[in-house]
């Protein structure tokens, strides 16, 4: 069964909750090693994942590769520039060929329309490893991290600070599916995608946009930020200047709930969107979050390949 994972809504809220639980179980078995044999069921034995990269990556690349290995399968990396995609072979033809050779495709690309086209022409599942529009795999890891640090998702108070980017859009989507409150603090002109906001609100998530960083974090149990300038964005002095009031520093964290957790998908631009004091401080869970990419990506792979 080919299930594309282009956005979180492809799985839906109930499945997202099931994915988090499955990740918790598999992670626990791995931590209990050698008492328990982790992933002893090898559910993806004989399966191969092709990973196409049109942008840089450390975590997505390593976590999907490790996830496939741990589940009994394997992965191969295709740097787009050294493939025929880089010489103009169409997405549709690439999809047709890879569907005859591998069991699933993960792609990191720029224009979201490209992944939609790939999914349309591929007979095997296509997984979104980040586009300019969304980053759903990262958000599965983020939700897992929040849950394992003791929070239930429904009713949770989450704050996002800074640029309204691919991460923000997927977090907004999660607010709708898992019914939590998300306050997005960012400058005018850098808002997240309006369609994602409308869908999340219609699904029962509370999404509030504010230009006041303190209002965004007030009472938040989770504070999230990301780079001010995403891969492929022009950036520039004006863009960076507009982001300054939204830096997550100790003073801003103090306005959140006591013991609020700090998340960042990484890579971090230290002392830009977050200060060393916060990212290296006791409220930061960013290394758990990075590790959780492996555990979360296992759930995504298992769902896409019809094993969950
Ligand atoms: N967070 C994340 O997706 O990291 P990479 O860009 O290193 O894959
Ligand atoms: N918003 C960032 C996420 C990197 C993982 C980017 O797109 O560059």
Explain what the structure shows:
It catalyses: carbamoyl phosphate + L-ornithine = L-citrulline + phosphate + H(+). Keywords: Cytoplasm, Transferase. Its EC number is 2.1.3.3. Reversibly catalyzes the transfer of the carbamoyl group from carbamoyl phosphate (CP) to the N(epsilon) atom of ornithine (ORN) to produce L-citrulline. Belongs to the aspartate/ornithine carbamoyltransferase superfamily. OTCase family. By secondary structure, this protein is an alpha/beta fold. It contains twelve helices and nine strands. The strands form two sheets. The protein has a five-stranded parallel sheet. A four-stranded parallel sheet has the order 2-1-3-4, with helices on both faces. Helix 6 links the parallel strand 5 and strand 6. The longest helix is centred in the first third of the chain and has 20 residues. It is globular and about 55 Å long. The N and C termini lie close together (11 Å). The model has no long low-confidence stretch (mean pLDDT 97).
Give the helix/strand layout.
Elements: H1 13-32, E1 48-53, H2 59-70, E2 74-79, H3 91-99, E3 104-108, H4 112-121, E4 126-128, H5 136-148, E5 157-161, H6 166-178, E6 181-185, H7 194-202, E7 206-210, H8 213-217, E8 222-225, H9 237-243, H10 250-254, E9 261-264, H11 276-279, H12 286-304
Parallel strand pairs: 1-2, 1-3, 3-4, 5-6, 5-8, 6-7, 8-9
This protein binds phosphoric acid mono(formamide)ester and norvaline.
The site of norvaline has 9 residues, from helix 6.
